[in-house]
Write a structure and sequence with these properties.
32% of the residues lie in helices and 32% in strands. It is of the alpha+beta class. It folds into 3 domains: 16-33 and 282-326, no CATH class; 37-122 and 258-280, Sandwich (Immunoglobulin-like), CATH 2.60.40; 129-203, no CATH class. The strands form 3 sheets. It has a 4-stranded antiparallel β-sheet with strand order 3-6-1-12. Strands 4-5-2-11 form a 4-stranded antiparallel β-sheet, with no helix packed on it. Helix 2 packs across helix 3 (157-169) and helix 2 crosses helix 4. It starts with a helix and ends with a helix.
């Protein structure tokens, strides 16, 4: 009878240890083997402008739950400014305020992200079918002609969006396409044109802004992307080629056509981005992730103890293994 309770207790303790270990590996990303490194991307947004000598408020959109990435930490660098953050739907805003600002000014926002394929953006509800846009007569005729051509080549919303983009930015086939191309000169104009054309077909679409994470970028800018709703989820598309999905290492920064940076009491505002890649130990990344979430699972780890105590426990934890081998 006594041996049965000993075995039962042993199995329970062993199961509890395995469960805690599995939770740490799954939720915090703690490695099972030593000397594992992972890539950490640091992105810095520099907002520069000129103050007019009076009160100033600056508003900058910043990432919020970007898909395929996890935010480890973020910093706001702004000497003499007050800082606050607000959430607007799926986006976040950093708001800097100061009583007086004159001459050249610069504000910095820096964040570190780590790739996480399991990190999914929280989906907002179905936005509803958009109203048909009001356009000039000639432009409206060109859009309707294009939509009729695309309907014959598509079977569902995904194929419709892909065919529309490919017709707009592929080899010209008609005068309607040429007219629409002439009306959109910049990538942002082209993305807005695609959203407008899809609205004519009663298909919800929106512009998504992001940055391609490449090491060494110093003067980067956000790139527009397109997301189309198929009444179940948002589907991303390359606005130039119609290729579905986001490219590798594409960090979604904001959603919507609103300006990235807005000023009240200043002028000549612009935002530039810098990107750097570094390698960190997986254990350090897991500890930082536990601080940002926050997670109490790291409290059940030796890493929460002082270094001297960690070294002592590393020796003590080998005693049961030695006793087992002796027995």
């Amino acid at each position: 009878m006594r041996n049965r309770w000993v075995w039962t207790l042993s199995v329970l303790l062993f199961s509890a240890g395995i469960a805690i270990c599995a939770i740490k590996v799954k939720t915090l990303g703690l490695p099972l083997t030593p000397d594992q490194d992972t890539a950490v991307w640091t992105v810095e947004a520099r907002a520069s402008f000129r103050g007019r000598g009076g009160p100033l408020q600056a508003r900058l959109f910043i990432p919020h739950e970007p898909p395929a990435f996890e935010i480890l930490d973020e910093d706001f660098v702004s000497q003499g400014y007050g800082i606050a953050t607000e959430t607007e739907g799926l986006d976040r805003l950093a708001i800097w305020t100061v009583r007086r600002a004159s001459g050249p000014q610069a504000l910095y926002y820096r964040l570190s992200v780590v790739p996480d394929e399991g990190a999914l953006r929280h989906e907002d509800p179905f936005p509803g079918f958009p109203q048909k846009p009001v356009r000039a007569a000639a432009l409206d005729s060109a859009v309707e002609t294009l939509l009729q051509e695309v309907r014959l080549e598509s079977a569902d919303i995904e194929s419709f969006a892909r065919a529309l983009i490919q017709r707009l930015h592929g080899p010209a086939r008609s005068g309607a396409v040429e007219m629409l191309r002439d009306a959109a000169a910049t990538p942002a104009d082209r993305a807005a044109q695609i959203v407008d054309a899809l609205a004519g077909a009663r298909i919800p679409a929106r512009i998504v802004w992001g940055i391609q994470l490449d090491d060494g970028i110093r003067e980067g800018r956000l790139e527009p992307w397109i997301e189309v709703h198929n009444e179940q989820e948002w589907l991303p598309f390359d606005p130039m080629s119609g290729k579905p999905g986001y490219p590798a290492r594409f960090l979604v920064w904001k959603i919507g056509a609103e300006p990235l940076f807005e000023l009240e009491g200043g002028r000549s505002g612009e935002v530039r981005f810098a990107v750097a890649r570094s390698m960190r130990e997986v254990v350090d990344v897991a500890a930082q992730r536990a601080r940002s979430q926050p997670s109490f699972w790291m409290d059940f780890s030796l890493f929460s103890l002082p270094i001297q105590t960690q070294n002592l426990y590393k020796i003590l934890l080998t005693v049961p293994l030695g006793a087992f081998l002796v027995c």
